[in-house]
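#random but structural
TW: two for the price of one
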Amino acid sequence: IKSSAASDVYKRQTFEENIMTDKDNVKKQYENYKKQLDKINDRYSETYVKPETDMPDSLGLKTVDYKMPSEDELRKKAETALEADRQSAISKIGKETEEKIKKQSALKEQAFAEAAKRLLDIDSEREQAVREVKNDALARNIARSSIASEGVRETEERAAALRRDAQAERDGTAEAIDREIEALKKQASDSLSQTEKNFLSRLEAETEKLREKALEEKTEAEKYNNTVAEKEAEYEKALEERREELERREWERLARLAEIKNRQGESALKSMKQKEILSATKEFFDGLSPADALSLFLSDTGMQSVLGEDYVWFLNYLQTRKNG
């Protein structure tokens, strides 16, 4: 039962959709029929009808508005493209130099630390040596003699000489390290100068490259705009020719109508027009079902004006067709 009900609903929906489709088709056919009547009226009009080309006024092609960048703009663009590499090179030089200087400074601190320890050891050894000299003098009972004094003096002098040597070695190492640090700074300065020279050289090359590219784009834009202008000119020429052709046909139409009117009279001209209207009307309504044709004909109050004397005849024709 449910399946049967669903089938009935589907059939009803399909039927309603078909009705809507048929109505849309009839509406489109009716609009085309009215347009055909307008064309017949225009064809038999004895007044000048300005021709319509059914062509747009132009192709509507858009030109390219290309502005050649200035030298400053090109250079700034080149700088932007190269700046990251430049900063990377500068940063690398700075970091490498800083690391090397840190190592040298550490070596200098190490030299001072070792020298300080050495001096302490010398002082300790001196004190030990002086005590031994004095103790030996006491043991020999010559503590107040010149021999004892000479022994202490010699010990002090040896210690002083060792201190001078240690300090000289420390100061020499420090001076060598300072010279190395200055050399590293100069090397870094030279590297930075070379980096700047390389940057300026690359900047000129990159600016020239961008300039050439911009000139190519300008040439392409001009070429494209010229093509657009040529196409629009050709189209305008074709449009003008089409207008002239339609203009000629319109005057020829008026001339033919005038000739028919002069030879056969105005009634013959009206008869020819009415035959075409009746033929177009019959062709349209014959394409509909008899019932729809009669219903639509009666609903259009303008049909009597369209058919004139043929209105009654055509109404009888549709009624006879419907009644079968």
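TW: number two ↓
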Amino acid sequence: NQAIQLSEKAKGTQGKQDVLSQIATKLLQNREIHLAFTLAQHTVSERGKVVLLSRWLRALIEGGAVTWVKQKLEGIVELAEQIPIAKDKLSTLVQIALTNWSIGDEENAHHFIAEAGDLFQKLTNPEEKISAFLELAEFYQKSGDDPKACQLITSAETLAHSTPVRSDSFPLIACVWAKASHSDKALAFVEQEIQDPAIKAQAIAQLAIACSQSGDLKTALELVPQVKDPLNRAILFAQNAGGFAERGNLEQAKGALNEAIPLASHITLSSNRAIVYAAIAQASAKMGEQDQALRFLQQALHNAAHSTRESTIEVIGNLIPVMTHLGGTQLLS
């Protein structure tokens, strides 16, 4: 409450939210996740708020805080009902469905995904439809329904072919194929559908990271030479390091992380440096290098505090898995 009162002294909505974002960052520096979580609810739009909090909850589930998550879900559902725009509400319902699936509540997960499917019928903009197809596909992929996920991604492809859409829709489609463990289809899509060299390079970088995140280290490693820019290259090496650590290959993990760390100094924007340091911290935690993880966690928080409001909230979301890994559920006491 004191933080919110302090923010009222700032000029304008943006100023108030910047103050709250920086206070949330400071709370995380003190490992006060439950307070930062509460404060973050005052810093973003209704849709952004629910998407962010749902992602935090799934990260906290991984840290073992299932009971605490269940207590928070009802409030998030109430927030979702207040969202007036169909595409935003659909995105939010998918996040809620994923969170329910993560805690083993399959009945509610399918209830919310069905509600999201009903909202799809209200969409008319092709790009919104493509985004919705891909978000729904993510749920079905994570819930084990691969045929349904593939059907939805194919629908997104068909729509992208038949209507004029933004160029960034194509890399998104490729990444969802990769997250669904179909890297062959993702690579074929990039090669066949993206002609612009700059967009193709960005798509390959995003695809490599998506492959690493989904556990396809073989494809991710094959794509490393094609990822040139420092930001995506650093994130890719950090993701690969975490993947190797999860498989018990600590020497390979250290090698990948040693590639990622020096790249951070070549990244200009503090918000991007924060994202890289967060990825390095998470990989370090997976490797059992707690002191190193805490050091990079502090660097991520420091850079986040000097970033825009949106970047700060994004970085905080990325740091939650690191902090739950290092501190366990006592962070919520």
